[in-house]
Amino acid sequence: MDGNVTEVRAGQVTRSGSGVALSADQLAEVLRVFTAELAGPEQAFGTGRIGRAIAGCYGDVRTEALDTYRDNIQALGAQGGDVRTLGMRFQRASEMSADLTRQLGEGLG
Fold this sequence. Notes:
With 109 residues, the protein is an all-alpha fold. The protein has 2 helices and no strands. The chain starts with 9 loop residues before the first helix and ends with a helix.
């Protein structure tokens, strides 16, 4: 930051937000594939009363875990979008500040 502790590199912030959002998209794809691979394993427990009970418990735990993971991925993607927006707002504020500084300089000159 070259000694200026108030400098914000808006483009870097925006790119970071894009990277976070991209990571969330990649994790969502991994989850989609993983969920498809898990489809139907309850059949391994059999069709009897005990097998169905075990399969039901397994299915409930799996569903809860996958839903939580999915929610976290969505939150990560939203945070990436928020960081991207923050970077764009900093860029706009920087441009406005430069415009005002230029206008003041022209007015005083």
